[in-house]
Amino acid sequence: MRVFRGSRLQRNGYIGKKDWSCAGTEYGALESKESDKAVVSIKGLLSDITQDHVRTRRSASLAFDVPSIGTIRCTQVFRAILGKRIVCLGQAEGDQVIVKLYFDPQRARIHWRRSDEGSRAFLDRFIASPKILFSGYLVKYDLYAIVFEYIKDAVRLDKALADAPSGQDRQQLLDRLLVCLADQHRAGIIQADLHMGNFLVTAEDIYSLDGDQVRTSARPVGKRLSSENLVELFSRLWPVYDTELPKYYRLYCSKRGYEITEKDIQKLIGMVKRVRNRHLAKYMRKIFRSQDPFLVRKTHGCFSVCDLRVWDDGFAAVCRNPENFISEDKNQKMERACSNYVVTDSGPLILHSSRTSGKPLLRRCGIIARRWKNAHRLNRLGIRTPRPIALIVKRGPDKRLCSYMIEASCEGTLARDFFASDTIPNDEKHSAAEHIAKAFFVMKQTGISIQGMHGGNILISDLKPIFLNGTELNRVPFARRFGAEEGVSDFLRGWDDNSDILLLFLERFRQLQLM
Q1: In the chain, which stretches have pLDDT less than 70?
Q2: FRET pair for 471, CA 20 to 30 Å: which of 102, 205, 222, 497?
Q3: Cα–Cα distance between 17 and 215 in angstroms, integer?
Q4: What CA–CA distances, in Å, run from 98 to 42, 54, 95, 172, 219?
Q5: What is the distance between the alpha carbons of residues 356 and 393, in angstroms, rounded to a whole number?
Q6: Cβ neighbours, 10 Å, residue 132
């Protein structure tokens, strides 16, 4: 903003000395005080908004005026980075809008400008994207804002894929996504942070979101950069889709007019696996750190980490004193491991416990800690397990470390009872066996040894398996060569008394080359 000094205005005859002093002291001071109050008020509200508002869907209770739109009242918070920016749903004269607010003391303008330029790039190059209703600096509140139109009946692509009723519906969504990505690259647009949450899906179109990390070029994106961006997208898919990647790659290349060979396909699949492993390793480091959504607490003789996405008063009491929820007869079994069913006001929980070595450095290597790591790893790879909530390591009266893990309770039918039942139709059994085989295939592809799996520790829920005990699912360097075959053989031995089910699993495993 350009500021004119009083002496210069006086020399040019615009105002007299008396008028300037009045404007500078009375009106200017009053406006400054009102502006300072507004800034302090809204900055105080923004500093209270955290990612907990996203998890609990608490209302933001935030209101501010925007030129040409009027007063916007923010309600639901979609994303919050403490002290930097938030994304929320707002109400403006009865209409819904999406609002991005940037208020980082050092880099607010940089983040706003980057997002503004990226969002306008989509619109200028005719890529479907929400319209920008306002973008700029709000002087009254000392923050930057971008207001987008609200797309009705739109769903985030990651949620649409998770809720797809069938494999054919998921395939149609991914086909539409690849056409959208081909249009972006043809228009010279690259999204550096490419993931499923950056797209909104409606019945007619797919909308591109988040211009924060968008790079543009005057010419269409070349084959090498396009392939690298495609690898980033494919790495976000669960490994169970790896068998379909050649088909999706060919679809994309047909839209871009590229010719590819079988060697190109194998090279892309190898790159996808490497990038996915890098993302997985980064996530696995988070589960022992205070990094959203995990919170670590360290005191003398106690270490705990919990998942804030499911934090409530029900299991907070269990976290404080987990030893009080272990029955006396199971106390003697803690040398290996034991499990307890705990009922709280928030719902049922499963409490696993064991005694570990007294060396502090081994607290991540005990049975319970390994179970905690494996549960997170499997869930990240799209293999269902009971959701891990908290890990606690405490030093007991005998100076030994006691490990506890809390996980959510799951409902379903044990696999041995499911396949032995005469009332369950054969087509449902075939579907459940296929899902188990695909889960084993994912473990083999990602280097996880299939060990300790049998019909007594697998639940069948909605015809999909939930693996109850992942303690023995270790990462091994040659799982594809040795771990898978041994684990599959151990699993099949549990069905020797039922030849029909044994043949059913043999057929599914051979189709996926697990034997």
Answers
A1: 1-41, 328-336, 356-365, 472, 474-483
A2: 497
A3: 52
A4: 18, 15, 10, 28, 31
A5: 9
A6: 16
